UniProtKB/TrEMBL annotation:
Protein's UniProt name: Nephrocystin-4
Organism from which the protein derives: Paramecium primaurelia
A cellular component term, taken from the record's GO annotations: cytoskeleton
NPHP4 C2-like domain sequence ranges: 694-763
Coiled coil residues, start to end: 485-512
Lineage top rank: taxon: Eukaryota
Pfam families found in the cross-reference section: Ig_NPH4_3rd, NPHP4_C2_3rd
Keywords noted in UniProt: Coiled coil
Domain NPHP4 Ig-like: 1130-1213
GO biological process: negative regulation of canonical Wnt signaling pathway
InterPro entries from the UniProt entry: Ig_NPHP4_3rd (IPR058686), NPHP4 (IPR029775), NPHP4_C2-like (IPR058765)
Length: 1309
């Protein structure tokens, strides 16, 4: 089983949602019995109705466990419960509302401790939705409550703002209330007590969770258990290669050396003292059979050695066997189409090694595990032959797997399974005590697992006596605990005896017709319950399924899509056009010429031709243009690729977002006979939309735009660029191919209309092979538009009056103030003191008045400062410049300035860009580099400065500040450069402009340039940035293996090698670039991400280092896919399986990009995939060409037309030695026929099938019948071609006999 299968199995497991188990580093008092609780969230207060009455309000609840011990250690643990989104029903007044009650269940052995309480953290999120589409999500807060304190009445809790993760910091924080409250009750749950064994301890579950083992499957008020069964496994054999068992000894030696620092050559004995096979039942949450993973049997080594051949190498296996029977009870169902569970077989070794001469230690090793499904036939034996899943990795219960040196070898399990009904129900066994005993005494249970003779064949009294002795020796248990253990052991003994009796009875009465009839009736009853459950689920999805089908029907019959107003770019409009939706007659197709563009960058055309055509375009009074694109027909070439019957075309044109057409059906798509006839005869089939040829229109209205150079830029685009069409298969969503059409032919050159009709090759981007041709018509229609509008709008210099505000004066604190005193006497001394005191008070008053006046002036300045600054700035910024910024295109903004002062002055340039602090680089800056300044002055003919080394730069409070010194009357033309590598998003609103969004996308904004001298404003300019999307020259797609470092090679760039290396800019900093020696190819080094992810970036090629002119803009898309590597013999059919992950119930159609891989019935047609199940899809691989083949597999939801999952299959086909070789001579350019002899190699009559590896060699007799050792002849037809070596594969009907004949074809003239 591949790693992908293992990951898909783990996604099925519900306990994968567990954070972690309770850490051992946090000592918590644990009880023996696990108690079940129910938390009822009955009322959530403070919810508000959305302001838009069309929207609905929904909410969801999340719950987590949190605990802290006396040492201050704290953590979240257990399983996180997330409820489904629930509707809130508001009353007519819009204030009162009702919502469903949410029950949450859990069981735990943690004892209630007031000093270390176990807490449940509740979080609530609200959703504003419209027709199940979430428009807004908001976190409403969190609260905590004690998880073990039973409440006698409802408790109301207030929610706090922020995240509960702040509890991990342990800081005292005054939490702010969020205005939301919740009313809840906590009670002990008797109904969950009988079924709590179905979920692990400390796992929160509730409304919306599926709990296999319940009769109704989903958690709710009814916890009635599903009927359980008993499975018996016998004839157990395990085959393990000798080399793998040698790896186990090396693993133990490595562990001992690491732990005890023993030398590598230490000769301490290592012995395998126990080998056992664990067989248990897992329901997706936990093991629910009686003994859990303690249900094992010992494996004995036989003397038999088995030899098998793997990849033409002989492998010697050691056989382990168990001749008895092991039973697995409480099996609910093992049907993979029902989300119930699976049997798990696990192989474990126990090793003992010497630490010193007197000390020994044992070590448990897990070699592998297998998920097993069986049929539901009572009494019917089912043979099991599976390979173990080996390391590296872990088992379902978290045990690490042994890593072998050669993981390609496999450990095999063989056995027989028998299903028996009528066993005891799970409620008859109190699993709480069983799970409690396993968790309370792990050391004792580990000791039990190490006893090789402790199994079902040992007398039960002896087992109980051994367990009692070990428990008394290993722990201090009080009297109450011993009584509970004794009661449990007696109950366990009775159940084991009853189970043994039922097992013997089931084995004896397997052949009894009456019992078989009873078994069949029980099966029919279970099937009836299953059909009722499926009918209920189908009714729930009936409305949604009907909605999807109706929407799909509307899409098929509606007009071609129109880009919405808010998504419309400034200079283009996409509309359906009916007047051009006409079928092109066959006579019109005759003058169609073939266009073949091979290199990524075409050779440059002479400037004279470009200037002449540009002059004609600029002189034309028909400024507005209508571009009509009409794909007429399509012809496919038969080959190893699947045939398309319906396509969707993506059009990449000018600076627009990619336009996707509706689904276009090929002519005769529903007439299999005519479709096949035209396909085989190479006839083009029309592309139809509503039985008419589809066309789309692009309006280029240059007269209505503020973009002054739009007409010139669009004409230059038509002259230099190509139209890119991506053709996608509508059913499989594979990229069928791409075409590029030069647009120079639709330049009107002063005429009213111009059109081209081209027969363009459709090329596969991966293999570079031609898969067909497309006949397309492109037309350019000119029309006279409105008068051009002014390009700049000056700002009005309006003087705004100062806004009056009330000033608040505060009396300053004067530490020199002397308190007033009363003088009774009139002595000279008293009068002197009085005069001094009066003078002192007068002086203090004067100082207070001065301080008060100063404070008022400062406050006045602070209040009036913004208004004053705005007034002064508007006085200087009387002009503005509009910069139309294209993605990756450099724009230069000149600013003339002169020093009018009579002396040299230093001037400062400040750039106020509102988005500069959120970007990693400066998009708008002053050119201060002397070399670059001189370059732009020379190319753009700007006034040359007296000194290029004039501008200095410094950092001031995180902002870049420029300054320079000018002599009296000295002039300078400052050059500002703007270049951005952010995409332009047409559809974004202002409230979506988060910092993360601004780093990726650009919108219109204002940038202010201020020239100052000693803080005084001298000059300035306002820049209005209008973003545009840069036309894309190529879209290169790569499909690569996930999670690895890889190197991608960009194909040939130029038709002729370059003499120097061009300047390249990559928008992704994690991608490294390498040039070839002739500068004609590029290698990219990058890291591939997680499966089903895509990495998108652009590569821009410039003519020089200053990014003056863009040569090309390539969009790179790297798709990360789960990859399966498989080696197959050439010409032989090999079957394997892939795992299909599924989140909801879907109807899936599987597709392959190459006929080499086919799907086994019923997976070759539409199939239903269920969530939470291990959906295994079998595939057949038949390789007819040797070498490596990369094949892509897609799983598409047929209702939503959504790609759900993709795989990449790396097939390596190895040729087999031929039995005969023939030399054939054929006349070049002519068809020839030949007869080939073949001898039957067996002594009986056999029917053989014959297949050719080449499409140029056709087999006339595909099937022949031969007698024993008979020589027969079969006929072949050799078509004109270039194949020199062709293989003929011969197999019998059962594919047990395989033979190869090689034909060496030589063409003569």
């Amino acid at each position: 089983m591949s790693t992908e299968d293992i990951n898909s199995i783990k996604k099925f497991l519900k306990f994968q949602k567990m954070h972690k188990s309770l850490p051992s580093s946090i000592p918590i008092q644990m009880g023996l019995d696990s108690k079940a609780f129910k938390l009822i969230v009955s009322r959530i207060g403070g919810l508000r109705r959305p302001q838009n009455p069309v929207l609905n309000l929904q909410f969801s609840v999340a719950a987590n466990f949190f605990i802290q011990n006396q040492q201050g250690e704290k953590c979240f643990f257990g399983r996180t419960y997330n409820s489904p989104r629930l509707n809130v029903e508001f009353g007519p007044d819009g204030v009162n509302y009702e919502h469903p009650i949410i029950p949450i269940y859990y069981h735990t052995r943690i004892l209630n401790n007031k000093e270390m309480p176990l807490l449940i953290i509740l979080e609530i999120q609200s959703y504003e939705t419209q027709q199940d589409l979430v428009l807004k999500r908001m976190h409403l807060g969190w609260c905590e409550l004690q998880a073990l304190t039973i409440t006698t009445q409802s408790t109301k809790l207030n929610f706090r703002k922020g995240s509960p993760r702040i509890l991990l910091l342990g800081q005292q924080v005054n939490f702010e209330s969020s205005g939301i409250s919740v009313t809840c009750d906590l009670v002990q749950s008797e109904e969950f007590q009988i079924s709590m064994h179905l979920s692990p301890e400390n796992a929160l579950c509730g409304l919306g969770d599926e709990l296999p083992g319940l009769k109704k499957s989903f958690v709710g008020g009814d916890f009635e258990l599903q009927r359980s069964m008993v499975v018996f496994m016998s004839k157990i054999q395990v085959l393990i290669p000798d080399t793998m068992e040698a790896d186990i000894y090396r693993q133990v030696q490595k562990y001992r050396t690491y732990k005890y620092r023993t030398p590598d050559d230490y000769k301490g004995d290592i012995q395998i003292i126990n080998k056992r096979l664990i067989v248990a039942f897992h329901n997706g949450w936990t093991f629910i059979n009686t003994r859990g993973t303690n249900n094992f049997v010992p494996l004995g080594e036989t003397r038999m050695l088995v030899n098998e051949f793997v990849d033409q190498k002989q492998i010697q296996y050691k056989q382990l066997a168990y001749h008895g029977v092991i039973d697995i009870n409480n099996v609910c169902s093992t049907d993979p189409t029902v989300n119930s569970g699976m049997l798990v077989a696990q192989l474990e070794y126990e090793a003992m090694f010497l630490v010193s001469n007197l000390t020994k230690e044992t070590m448990q090793l897990t070699l592998g595990w297998i998920p097993i499904y069986i049929n539901n036939k009572f009494g019917a034996d089912e043979l099991v032959e599976e390979d173990f899943i080996v390391g590296p990795g872990k088992t379902l219960d978290g045990r690490p797997l042994v890593s072998f040196q050669n993981p390609e070898l496999s450990i095999k399990l063989k056995g027989s399974l028998n299903l028996s009904g009528g066993g005891f129900q799970i409620q008859d066994l109190y699993m709480g005590a069983a799970s409690t005993q396993q968790q309370q005494f792990p050391q004792q249970q580990q000791g039990l697992q190490q006893q090789p003779n402790l199994n079902l064949n040992q007398p039960h009294q002896q087992q109980i006596q051994n367990k009692q002795e070990q428990q008394v020796r290993g722990s201090d248990i009080d009297i109450r605990t011993q009584v509970k253990l004794k009661d449990f052991e007696q109950q366990l003994l009775r159940l084991q005896e009853e189970n043994e009796r039922l097992r013997r009875l089931a084995i004896q009465q397997t052949s009894d017709p009456q019992k078989q009839q009873e078994y069949l009736q029980a099966i029919e009853k279970l099937r009836e319950e299953n059909r009722l459950l499926q009918f209920t689920q189908a009714r729930q999805f009936e409305g949604l399924e009907k909605l999807i089908k109706d929407q799909k029907a509307v899409d098929r019959t509606a007009a071609p899509p129109v880009v919405l107003a808010e998504a419309k770019p400034q200079n283009t409009v996409i509309k359906p056009i009916d007047s051009y939706a006409y079928p092109v007659p066959s006579a019109t197709l005759k003058p169609i010429t073939r266009t073949d563009v091979t290199a990524l960058i075409d050779d440059p055309i002479s400037m004279d031709q470009e200037n002449r055509l540009m002059a004609l375009e600029m002189q034309d009074e028909r400024k507005d243009q209508i571009i009509v694109i009409q794909p007429v027909s399509m012809k496919q070439i038969l080959g190893p690729y699947p045939i398309c019957k319906s396509v969707q075309i993506g059009i990449i044109f000018y600076d627009l977002q990619t336009f996707k057409s509706p689904f276009l059906n090929l002519e005769y798509y529903n007439d299999e006979r005519n479709f096949k006839y035209n396909l085989e005869n190479g006839n083009p089939l029309r592309l139809l939309y509503n039985n008419e040829v589809f066309s789309c229109k692009f309006n280029i209205e240059t007269s209505l735009q503020r973009y002054a150079n739009l007409e010139q830029d669009f004409a230059r685009y038509l002259f230099n660029k190509n139209l890119i069409l991506d053709i996608w298969d509508s059913e499989s969503l594979f990229l069928f191919g791409s075409i590029r059409i030069p647009l120079r032919g639709i330049m009107r050159g002063g005429k009213q209309n111009a059109q081209i009709m081209a027969d363009v090759e459709i090329q596969d981007p991966q293999s570079k092979k031609v898969k067909g041709t497309m006949q397309i018509v492109i037309k350019n229609i000119g029309k006279i538009g409105q008068q051009d509008m002014s390009k700049t709008v000056p700002l009005e210099n309006t003087q705004n009056g100062f806004q009056k505000k009330k000033l608040v004066s505060e009396k300053p604190v004067n530490r020199m103030e002397v308190p007033a005193q009363a003088f009774d006497g009139n002595s000279i001394q008293d009068r002197i003191k009085k005069i001094k005191q009066s003078n002192l008070q007068e002086m203090i008053k004067n100082k207070q008045s001065q301080q008060r006046s100063l404070n008022e002036v400062l406050k006045y300045k602070e209040i009036k400062k913004p208004s004053l600054v705005r007034t002064i700035m508007q006085g200087f910024l009387q002009n503005e410049k509009v910069v139309h910024s294209f993605y990756g295109k450099c724009e230069i903004v000149p600013l003339y300035f002169k020093n009018t002062r009579p002396k040299p002055e230093q001037f400062t340039v400040n750039i106020e860009d509102p988005e500069s602090r959120m970007l990693e680089y400066q998009e708008f800056f002053l050119i201060g580099n002397p070399a670059e300044w001189k370059y732009w002055v020379t190319n753009n003919k700007y006034p040359e400065p007296e000194n290029y080394d004039l501008i200095r730069m410094k950092e001031n409070q995180g902002k870049t500040q420029y300054y320079f010194i000018l002599d009296p009357n000295q002039e300078v033309t400052l050059l500002f450069k703007f270049i951005s590598f952010r995409q332009y998003d047409y559809r974004v609103d202002d409230h979506e402009r988060t910092p993360e969004y601004i780093k990726k996308y650009m919108q219109s904004r204002h940038i202010t340039i201020l020239l100052q001298q000693d803080g005084k404003m001298m000059d300035g300019l306002r820049i209005i940035v209008e973003p545009h999307q840069q036309p894309i020259d190529h879209v290169l797609r790569f499909y690569e293996r996930d999670n690895r470092q890889t190197r991608l090679v960009i194909p040939r760039l130029f038709n002729q090698p370059l003499q120097q290396q061009p300047h390249v800019h990559i928008t992704d900093p994690d991608v490294m670039i390498e040039w070839s020696s002739d500068f004609n190819s590029i290698r990219l080094n990058l890291r591939i991400g997680e499966p089903q992810s895509v990495k998108i970036f652009n590569i821009l090629l410039y003519s020089d280092q200053y990014q003056h002119k863009i040569i090309a803009n390539w969009k790179i898309e790297v798709y990360s896919l789960s990859t399966i590597d498989i080696e197959v013999p050439l010409g032989q059919r090999v079957c394997t399986k892939i795992t299909f992950p599924c989140d909801i119930t879907r109807i899936i159609k599987m597709s392959s990009s190459n006929k080499m891989i086919s799907f086994v019935k019923p997976f070759d047609s539409e199939i239903t995939m269920l969530p939470g199940k291990i959906n295994l899809v079998p595939i057949n691989i038949l390789a007819l060409q040797d070498g490596k083949h990369l094949i892509k597999l897609n799983g598409v939801d047929i209702h939503s037309q959504e790609l759900i999952y993709s795989w990449l299959v790396n097939v390596h086909a190895e040729p087999q030695p031929p039995s005969a070789t023939y030399d054939l001579r054929c006349i070049d350019g002519r068809e020839s026929r030949h007869q080939v002899n073949y001898k039957n190699q067996v002594n009986y009559t056999t029917q053989y099938n014959i297949v050719s590896s080449s499409e140029y060699v056709k087999i006339i007799d595909h099937s022949i019948s031969t007698g024993p050792n008979e020589i027969v002849q079969f006929k072949i037809r050799v078509l004109p071609g270039s194949e020199e070596l062709v293989r003929i594969f011969i197999t019998d009907i059962d594919e047990r006999i395989f033979d190869v004949i090689v034909l060496n074809i030589k063409y003569v003239y």
